[in-house]
Each structure stands twice: as C-alpha cells, then as structure tokens.
Amino acid sequence: MVDQMDSRISVSAPGSSANLGAGFDVLGLAVDLRAEAGVGDAPDGAQMIDDRHPATVAYKQLGGRQQLWSRSKLPMGRGLGFSGAARAAGAMLAIVEREGSREVANDHGARKEAFRVVAELEGHPDNAAASVYGGLVAASPNHVAQIPISQDWVVLVWIPENTTSTDKSRTQLEPVVQRVDAVTNLAAIAHFVAGVSSGDEELVRAGVVDRLHQPQRLAGVPASAEALHVMLESGAIGAWLSGSGPTVAGFFRRGATEAAESSLSGGQVRVVNVDHSGVVCS
After folding, report:
1. CB neighbours of 203 closer than 8 A, spacing ≥ 6?
2. Measured between alpha carbons, how far is residue 213 from residues 34, 100, 176, 218 in Å?
3. Is the distance from CB of 139 to CB of 16 less than 8 angstroms?
4. Which residues are within 8 A (CB) of 74 and not within 5 positions of it... i.e. 6 or more apart?
5. DSSP characters for 169-214?
6. Could you tell me which of 112, 116, 108, 14 has the C-alpha nearest to residue 61?
7. 44: number of CA atoms within 13 Å, CB side?
8. How confident is the model over 43-94, as pLDDT tens digits?
9. pTM over the 0.85 mark
10. Residue 1: which pLDDT band, with cuts at 50, 70 and 90?
C-alpha cells in the first residue's frame, strides 16, 4: 500500500517516436527520454503545473484531485511524444493513488486503463501505447501488440529548434489516398515489422518508405528533409520523420552513429536507447 506518510509519489513515462515511416498512426517506439508527474514535495528541476497541462488533464480524468508537479527531458512540439508521455504519467499517477499501491503500475489492467484514457486524449493510439507499454508497438484504439526488436540498436534523434503542431500538420495531408499508395504502405509496414523482429536491416530500410504523410510534411520543413537524407546516407538502418516532426529519428547499430552525428547540422543530436519499461512509479 502507498504509505500515507510519503511526501512524494511520482510516475514517469517515456517519450516516443511515432509512425516510423509507413506506420502512420499505428507504429510507436518508446525512447529513453522521460516525462514525470507527481504529488507532494517537488524535486529539483520540477515545476508545479496547472489544470491545462496534459499530465493534469489525464490525472483528473481518472479521478485525481491533488496539485501536480512535473519535470521532463522531452522537448515540447518536436515530434517526440511529450504530450503522450505526460498524459501516461498523469493517468497512471491517478490509478496508483486510487489503488493505494505503487506496484499497480506494472499491472496489465492498470496499463490498459491508462492507455485507453491517453489514446482518447491524444486522438491516436501510437504515442499512447509506446509511452504506457514501452518498446516498439503496433496500436489501434482497442489493441496493442508489442513487437520484439531482435538487435541492440540505438535511436539517433536530430531535434531542431522549431516546433510543429500535430493538428496543423494533419491539415496538410490528403483526405483521400490512392490505392497504390495504401498498398505501398501496407507492404512497408510488413517489411518493417519483419525486419525489426528478425534483425534484417534491408527489410527495415525498405519498411520506412512512406507515401501517406512524410512527403507532405517534409515539404514544409526542408531542414528535416535534409537531416533524413543525411541519416540514410550516414549508416542509418532506417530513418523517419518522428511523429509530425520536425525531429528526425533513425535506428543505428550501437557504436556506429559517429558519421551521422558529425554530418548533421542545424539541430541538437542525441543518441538514446529504446525504452522497454513504459510507465513506472517510484
């Protein structure tokens, strides 16, 4: 049970890189950059947050009533799933308080409940599933499948200073897609999942080809398009526009990111691990 004398309870969740090329609104990858929300004494680097913060919104939707603080290593509006991670932390914090147990954060039923709320608030399930469950996921509103990653790859992220609004970015997308484009993406998703699961780098690279959202989004952010090109030319196993951008991310063999890091410019470059824990309580 949660000790009533505890001065602090906190929950953190990983950020995510969504879509992964062809998997528009379906595929999500948890990255080891976390957003944290809590009650009680705020730790160093944390700030008290208001009712409009995504963590507070999710927390209150599941019955939470206390004042929250938050801290995060995730940049906002850059395509690394800040809102999904914050909402996952807030939702699970409410469940932990309600159930009186930190261990409930590891319970499948609690994670399913948190995912439902976060996916509803996000408007799409890919970021929500990655932040709640961790790892690589394929998600729909009612189901989450975790996809094994057979190799110890790292994720290189290029993060520019400019931001992107996901809602605004979606207005650039075609309301109707051509059959040939849909078929191309379906094949790419199958290639990507098979490649990641088996360690087949050629399939992974074939699996990030997209015709539904990346071309339209990259047209408005030429620096991101250039970063994507640089990654693919500098040893990326596969690279993609992260979420709606402007961040670009890619899989690399561990220890093989130097060429890309030295070639990328115009943004912050970070090498991060895949997060396999998902939402956790401390």
Report:
1. 191, 192, 194, 195
2. 26, 43, 12, 9
3. no
4. 15, 33, 34, 35, 80, 81, 82, 85
5. HHTTS-SS--HHHHHHHHHHHHHHHHHHHHT-HHHHHHHT--SSSH
6. 116
7. 0
8. 999 999 999 999 999 999 999 999 999 999 999 999 999 999 999 999 999 9
9. yes
10. very low
Exposure of 188 in the CB half-sphere (CA atoms within 13 A): 24
For 219-251, how does the pLDDT look when each residue is reduced to its tens digit (9 = 90+)? 889 999 999 999 999 999 999 999 989 999 999
Q: How far is CA 274 from CA 32, 56, 85, 96, in A?
A: 6, 26, 14, 25
The residue type of 206 is A
Beta-sheet strand order (sheet of 153-159): 238-241, 248-253, 153-159, 268-272
Q: In angstroms, rounded to a whole number, what is the distance separating the alpha carbons of residues 156 and 116?
A: 29
Q: What percent of the chain has pLDDT over 70?
A: 94
Question: Is 52 exposed, middle or buried, given 0-12, 13-18 or 19+ CB atoms closer than 10 A?
Answer: exposed
Distance CA 89, CA 37 (A): 6
CA 225, 26, 243: angle at the middle one, nearest 5? Answer: 30
Tokens read off for 195 = 């490649």
Domains in the chain (CATH in brackets) are: 8-147+275-281 (3.30.230.10), 153-272 (3.30.70.890)
Q: Flag the least confident range among 2-6, 92-96, 187-191, 216-220.
A: 2-6
Q: CB-hemisphere CA count at 13 Å for 66? A: 21
Mean pLDDT, the chain, whole residue set: 94
